[in-house]
Amino acid sequence: MQPLKRNLLSVALASATLMLANSAYAQSADQNQTQAEDIDEIKVVGIRRSIEASTETKRESTSIVEAISAEDIGKLPDTSIADSLARLPGLTAQRFGGRPQEINIRGFAGDFSTTTLNGREQVSLGNNRGVEFDQYPSELVSQVLVYKTPDAQLVGQGLSGTVDLKTVRPLAFGKRAFAANVRGDMNKVGDEKENGYRYSFSYIDQFADNTVGIALGYAHLNNPGQAKQFGDTWGYDGGGLFGGGKLYDLENDNERDGLMGVLEFRPNENYHTVLDIFYSQFDREEQKRGMEFAGAFGGTVQPGSTPANTSFTNINPVIRNDFNATYDDLFAIGWKHELRLSEHWTATADIGYSDAKRKERILETYAGVDPALARDTLNVVFDPDGFFRHDFGYDYGDPNILRLGDAGGWGQDGYIKDFEVNDSLSSFRLDFERSFDDGWFSSLEFGANLTDRTKSRASNEAFLDLSACLGGVSPACTDGFSQPIPTDLRTNSAFNAYGVGSIYGYDALRAYQTLYTRRANANGDISNKNWEVNEQVTTAYVQANINTEIGSIPVKGNIGFQAVSVDQSSRGSETFQGGGNGRPLEAGAAYTDFLPSLNLSFDLPWDQVVRVGAGRQVARPRMDDLRANNNVSIGVGLAENPLTGAPNVIDPATGQLTRFWMRDGGNPKLKPWEANAYDVSYEKYFGGSKAYVSLAYFYKDLRTYIYREQGIFDINDTSITPADYPVNPLLVPPSNLGGFTRPVNGEGGTIKGFEFAVSVPLDVLWEPLLGFGIQANYSDTKSSIQPLGPDFPDEPLPGLSKYISNITAYYERFGFSARVSQRHRSAFVGEVQGFGGDRTRRTFEGETVTDVQLGYTFQSGPLENLGILLQVNNLENEPFRSSFNGNSAQPREYFEYGRTYLFGVNYRF
To answer: Per-residue DSSP letters for 625-667?
Structure first.
């Protein structure tokens, strides 16, 4: 169905373009003027106001940008910033927990873009650089700009683009305003419901003859969520039979508080200062209940089984009750001063600080069928929606057949991971601008920006053992390693998904606090999660702003360059086969990048604009790739020699399999991703900035990229000594050389694509359609970049969907408003939290998400300016799913998040 959807959207976009063109040329100049005058008399508010403000920003920019503007104070068009961003041309979002969170720009994952708040680079709460946009309440943001082309004065820009979040400026707003929004929401998955709410307040005012301005905003979110998950863990055997899977019910409590404050002072035309503060606290707790089990890879396949209908015996599920939580704090402050030195000179100084802290817990507890009972039977039947239906012999909601303990034979009764992420960034910027009264250049800007960023991650992990079962048989343990589940821990056991009616639920956190003992786990994988990266970046720039004419054609734009000096370092450890915390390591590198940029905008007759952009863009390496950690081990029983690729054999001298040194780690000396970027855009505007159609093409030629490479190292060049490994000569590799896997810089690759967009209030075409409008865009992107290196030429770039489309139809008049939005992206490689708490890549299938919004605002009387709002998000209950090798008959993961219904009121005066 995807090609059909793409074709239909292309036809719709082309038709809209032709209609616009025909309408423009079919009317006389007098008729156009009359209609424009009539339309200008209409007070533009709400959805259309937001669209027209965004279009005006796009038209007036000297770079190629996309923009989102708030419909009103405290009111962006969508419930989240990520939702709004995902509707822009060339942008899309990856969903986490049912919410869009990470933004992908032009086929690149979130780590390749940079996010700023009021022009200052922001830190992130995840393991790497990608900002989680659900940390920023939409009610506190007045505008978002996405820069697609580089601009010399834009410090901290990314390879794919730069997202600048802006809070309101009270003096520019120009009047007193107060707004309050309250919404209740309900998330529904099947017959199960979760209710939540959100509210916000915003206040803007001016004092002292409009020389002092203040803006305050507060937003609270209480948003429980839920999901059902089918996951295939073991894949499929050679005959395509179901290897085994996971079934989970997830219940989430999400609570966020956001605060924004702006103090602005302009005593005269020569001095202007702004102090702005932003704070967000976001706490998320998840109860995860379910089971995991082997099928063909552990059970016994019964005769007559087929891939679509398989029967097993000897099934032994592990019942899981887990508790996952993240507690986030995000803070940013900035103070900017502008001083007019003379008629032509202006100086600006800006100091900023951004800080983020995350505490995360992943807690697992296990149970299984009483060992005194026989193992279970299972029949699985493939459902064309993308999962398997299960029919077990036992009722896993019955606590009488279950016992706590190591049901899977994993050597533990549970496991706990506690992570902590800290990220802080200090910045200072000094700029000067010299304006000119005539000539090609309107002004010359130059300056420097200094940032000092430190990000660290720490991991504390342990096995969990049942306290009552330690040291031999206890009365609480029926067989020496398991015990009944205490009845006072019981929670909801209903499951009702994928053919399973119930799975026993208990309070995992309380169980951990009362029933378990920690047993330390020290190994190389854990020490690899403990690292610190520091970056000191100095950016000097000069930019000439162009405002001239070539013949009769006005030309705007800029030309300039940045010199970016980076001094990076990392601290970590080097371990041997999990031997404790290892020995400390510290390494780093220093380098300088020169980043030229050019942007030109040509204003052609009949409201046509042609833009060209060229420049060099960079994305600094992922934080976990920069870590100094190394883990050394001895490889034995490998399928092949890691040095030569030859089959592994028995050493005739020792009778042992040949052993090899192996090493895996990060690389603190990495250089960034770097590309030469070229852009061209054609835009046709109608009715001033009321409507437009645009066609853009971009091409990025990579000079460097980063992938994991296997090379050779010498054990004598490491900190590992004979005291760390066995002295038995039969166990020591005969050669000092070994295979080393680490991230390195590669060369080459391109990414290119085109973006088509149209925004039309339909009264531009035909006046009786006043109030109706359409926004739509379509993107087609191709890449030859090899993110896993030359040995994997077909691996796609993370975040890249070849096809992206968005369409929004809206109506707004006489106080009534309605909007239907649909966004689609084709299959892509995303990152999810994998085993051990690290990010892992996963190929997800394409998805289409539809949202609906209805509203009414009272136009007069005692309820004037009171608005009522009804929304349904994910109207068609679109799942988030993946499969093995793109084979829909072999599903890998299937998340069902359900629909979310919102009802609220808005009031402003």
So the answer is: HH---EEEEEE-S-SB-TTT-PBP-EETTTTEE--EEEEEE--
